[in-house]
């Protein structure tokens, strides 16, 4: 039986990188959820547009953090490369989402936001 004390430096580093990856996924899930809330405020209050705009920037930064976390979990941590593909794909979705929001295309922007939130929940549960 291996105890935590028996874990070598590589194992500890891998665990730390995977924890960072899980935190990045959780943060991204939270920011997308807050975007849904601010979208509702966008429709009902004068400050909703500001909150949604700021939230979009935070969500995009969280998407970039997710890519960084996936890279760190892979290369130095010795983890699988698959999360990098997921993170990169999600960054593309976030980019499309931002463009659609700026272009005021709610018929695609809103369903894509729901899809993104669902994908984040799945990723969060799987990690």
Descriptive report:
The protein has 4 helices and no strands. The radius of gyration is 17 Å and the shape is elongated. The mean pLDDT is 87. The two termini are 24 Å apart. The chain has 127 residues and is an all-alpha fold. The longest helix has 36 residues, at 9-44. 83% of the residues lie in helices and 0% in strands.
Write a concise synopsis of the structure shown.
This protein has helices spanning 9-44, 48-74, 82-102, 106-126. By secondary structure, the chain is mainly alpha-helical.
The level of helicity is: over 70%
Cα-based radius of gyration, to the nearest Å: 17 Å
Shape: elongated
Number of helices: 4
Unreliable stretches (pLDDT < 50, length at least 5) are none
Distance between the termini: 24 Å
- Derived from helix and strand composition plus strand pairing, the structural class reads mainly alpha
SSE string, helix = H, strand = E?
HHHH
Classify the beta-strand content into a percent band. Answer: under 5%
- What about the largest sheet? none
Report the count of strand segments.
Answer: 0
Average pLDDT level: 87
């Amino acid at each position: 039986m291996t105890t935590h004390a028996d874990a070598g430096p590589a194992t500890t580093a891998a665990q730390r990188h995977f924890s960072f990856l899980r935190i990045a996924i959780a943060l991204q899930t939270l920011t997308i959820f807050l975007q849904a809330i601010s979208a509702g405020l966008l429709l009902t209050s004068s400050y909703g547009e500001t909150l949604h705009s700021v939230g979009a920037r935070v969500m995009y930064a969280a998407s970039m953090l997710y890519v960084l976390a996936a890279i760190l979990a892979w290369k130095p941590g010795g983890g699988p490369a698959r999360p990098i593909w997921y993170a990169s794909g999600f960054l593309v979705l976030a980019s499309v989402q931002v463009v659609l929001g700026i272009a005021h295309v709610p018929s695609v922007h809103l369903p894509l936001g729901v899809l993104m939130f669902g994908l984040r929940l799945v990723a969060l549960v799987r990690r």
